[in-house]
Amino acid sequence: xxxxxxxxxxxxxxxxxxxxxxxxxxxxxxxxxxxxxxxxxxxxxxxxxxxxxxxxxxxxxxxxxxxxxxxxxxxxxxxxxxxxxxxxxxxxxxxxxxxxxxxxxxxxxxxxxxxxxxxxxxxxxxxxxxxxxxxxxxxxxxxxxxxxxxxxxxxxxxxxxxxxxxxxxxxxxxxxxxxxxxxxxxxxxxxxxxxxxxxxxxxxxxxxxxxxxxxxxxxxxxxxxxxxxxxxxxxxxxxxxxxxxxxxxxxxxxxx
Length: 256
Description:
Layout: H1 2-14, H2 16-37, E1 41-43, E2 49-51, H3 57-87, H4 90-95, H5 101-134, E3 140-142, E4 149-151, H6 152-183, H7 187-204, H8 214-223, H9 231-251
Antiparallel strand pairs: 1-2, 3-4
Helix pairs in contact: 1-5, 2-3, 2-5, 3-5, 3-6, 3-7, 5-6, 5-9, 6-7, 6-8, 6-9
C-alpha cells in the first residue's frame, strides 16, 4: 500500500495541473490577504460583522479562498486524478502489474485528501502570519455568536476547528467526485456532473447545502445556530461514497 501511495503521489506531481493549481492557489491566498488587509471588518454574511483582528484573520481568509477550493481547484485535481489519468493512459500502465484496483483507488483518495490538507495548511499559516503582522491583536474576540467571547488560545482553537470541519467537507466532495468520475466518461463532463450533484442535492434537501456553501454552514454550526444536521450528512457523503466507488472501481473492467 505504501508503494502505491508513493507511486500515485509522484505521478500527481508530474502532472502540470498539480503544480499550476498549487501556484494559483498560493497567488489567490496572497491576493485575499491583501484584500482583507484593506478591510476593518470581517463579514460572516450580509448582516453580521466583527472587527477584523489577528485572532480571526485566518477564519475570514478561509472564507475568501473556500470558493476556489470547492468549485475550481479541488474538483480539477480530483477529476484529473480519478478520470484524467485513465484517459491519458497512465492508469493502464500502472494496472498492467498485479496491483489491487481497490488499493489503487484508496491510494488516490488518501493522496488527494492529503493534498487538500496541504492547501488548508497553507491558508491557515498565511492567515496566522499576515494577521499577526498587520492586524491588531486583542485579548478577547467574538465570532458569529456575539454572546460568546474567546481568549487568544481559544480563538486559535476555534479557527482550527473550523478548518477541520471544512476539510471534512472537502473529503465528502472527494468521495462524491470519485463516484461521479467512475460513472461519467470525460473530465469536462465529470466537472459538470459534480456541479449538478452539488446543486441538485440542495433541491433534495437543505441538509446538503454544505457541498456548495460549506463556510457559511461552518459559521452557523460553530455559532450553534445551524438548523440542519451537519456531521452525519457529511459522513454519509464521505464514507458510503468512498465504499461504493471503491466497489465500482473493482467491478469495472475499463480500469484493468
